Amino acid sequence: MERMLVFLTFSAAALPLETDLYRVQSGPTADKVKVLLNHDRRPKPGKIYGGLRTVEFCIGCPDPHLEGSQIKALGSYHGVDNYSVTG
Amino acid sequence: MVLTITVSPGSGGRDQSGAAKILNAEQLAGRVVFVDRGGVPLVEKVLAAQNAGAVGVLIADDGNCTGHYECGRAGSPRDGGFSKRDPWQNWRDVDVPAMLIMKAEADRLRAMMRLERKTIPGFGEQWIDIHIQ
Prior knowledge:
The complex is a heterodimer.
Chain A: H1 18-25, H2 28-32, E1 33-39, E2 52-59, H3 64-67, E3 69-75, E4 83-86
Antiparallel strand pairs in A: 1-2, 1-4, 2-3
Chain B: E1 2-3, E2 6-7, E3 14-15, E4 32-36, H1 42-51, E5 56-60, E6 75-76, E7 81-82, H2 88-91, E8 98-101, H3 103-112, E9 115-120, E10 124-129
């Protein structure tokens, strides 16, 4: 079997600049994912797992609460109690 | 939502753990920030994102949480959340919400953002938006 050797070389000019790198990583698709973090820490009767929160998210939609999916998340024990942020 | 891109201390490589200087700080203002767990205490990640102007932080677990958010020393739902063992003083300056999500859910979000792990010469492994490659 004939062997093929492939040499990969990278010139300094081919390396992405630091600024280019993070522009690539935070691209347009990532920007379209919208997340809603919403919670108030009022006690609810019968609630056992007090640390769980809900994250709502969607892609390319105006309001994750109306059209998004939900996943459970573990909130922080300390920090803010009541919040509703989208970003 | 936006990823944090940071310079890891010592290694010279970059990652999304929020463990050091944030390179894309100007992109975090007004956004919910997505960071990887690991490297430094969770509260430091939250504060770093907050100081960059983030309105919320989603921390992606690295696989240490098992079952239904049983995250060992980090905490569990029964504890009332993560970082319960932290001194409250460490969190007194935090005024943005922070949530820890399971690795499977984090992977799902990464898939929505069309991120793939790639190695870039000189920068180590990165999450790359494959949509614009």
